[in-house]
Write a structure and sequence with these properties.
Methyltransf_11, 2 domains, alpha/beta, 305 residues, AlkB_tRNA_MeTrf/Diox, 7-stranded mixed sheet, SAM-dependent_MTases_sf, tRNA (5-carboxymethyluridine(34)-5-O)-methyltransferase activity, Rossmann fold, 11 strands, 8 helices
């Protein structure tokens, strides 16, 4: 499918395409119900005043922020949306799938988006791309080596969080992210996986940390990262959660930036990967796909009930 040319004003342009022009399908969008799965702090809720929005997110504090703004929202998991089938006219998933650590969960999230829209309804999905525009700051990311790949995406990794954890960390309200990403070279997928396996399986007997990111070669093939996320001190003090997070090794302080730093998991998508993922979902077709501001974006249409 041909990659469409899109304006360079960022995600608002992409989102308006589906929420305002309905991707050229000729259907009226006035009064349409749009479901935002993983709405965060509500940045895109109400983007089009002619549509009715319902947002959901796994984070209760973020949902509280949305509710305080007057949005219709609820706490829910993207892989198990609490809507009946065919409920919405359209759905959006903005920067959500790359936080899911297995292909099974990512595919399940796509299946849920398709399930909850009506036949003929549109779904917009965006994810971080491995092929990035900015090459400068990727060294601040931490590639996951074999140990962490096994814990996060390996066959033995737990699929459900235990409720009996001895330490509970409160969710932190989201702030604007200033993370930049690197443009990684396009390589043959099979050889990339082989090289990544060789890199991540090498032992760390040289004394480096298991999360040592000094091996620059690995960045050419890496798709699993921990990305630093900075929470200003004043926000951390208000939330009260960061003190415990730092004490328990779940975050670190950066006095120069005046922030507590958390590591967020990202699976960056290589070119064509999102298409392959959604092509395995029954009852939908790809309407458009495009690259915008270091993100891969795709629009799907539901073809059957």
């Amino acid at each position: 499918m041909m990659m469409t040319e899109h304006c360079g004003s960022g995600f608002l342009c992409c989102h308006e395409e589906i929420l305002v022009s309905s991707a050229g399908n000729g259907k009226s969008i006035i009064g349409s119900l749009v479901l935002d799965a993983g709405c965060g702090n509500g940045k895109y809720l109400g983007l089009n005043p002619n549509c009715y929005f319902i947002g959901c997110d796994i984070s209760a504090p973020l949902i509280n922020i949305c509710a305080d703004k007057g949005h219709e929202v609820l706490v829910a998991d993207a892989v198990n949306l609490p809507y009946r089938s065919g409920y919405g006219d359209a759905a959006i998933s903005i920067a959500v799938l790359h936080h899911l650590s297995t292909e099974i969960r990512r595919k399940k999230a796509v299946e849920e988006l398709i399930r909850v829209v009506k036949p003929g309804g549109l779904v917009l999905i965006t994810v971080w791309a491995r092929e990035q525009e900015d090459k400068a700051l990727v060294n601040k990311w931490t590639p996951l080596n074999q140990k962490y790949l096994e814990e996060w995406i390996g066959p033995g990794s737990p699929r459900v969080r235990s409720s009996s954890s001895s330490f509970s960390l409160k969710s932190i309200p989201e702030t604007e992210e200033n993370c930049a990403v690197e443009q990684l070279k396009d390589v043959d997928e099979e050889s990339a996986e082989k090289t990544l396996h060789e890199i991540t399986c090498s032992n760390s007997s040289d004394g480096h940390s298991p999360l040592d990111s000094t091996n620059k070669a690995s960045s050419l093939y890496q798709q699993e990262y921990f990305v630093p996320w900075h929470l200003p001190y004043h926000r951390a003090e208000v939330s009260g959660a960061s003190v415990n997070a730092v004490a328990n090794g779940l975050a670190r302080k950066d006095d120069k930036k005046g922030a507590v730093v958390y590591d967020r998991y990202y699976h960056v998508f290589s070119e064509g990967e999102l298409e392959r993922l959604v092509s395995g979902v029954d009852g939908s077709v790809i309407v458009d796909r495009f690259y915008d501001k270091s993100n891969w974006c795709i629009i799907l249409e539901k073809t059957s009930s």
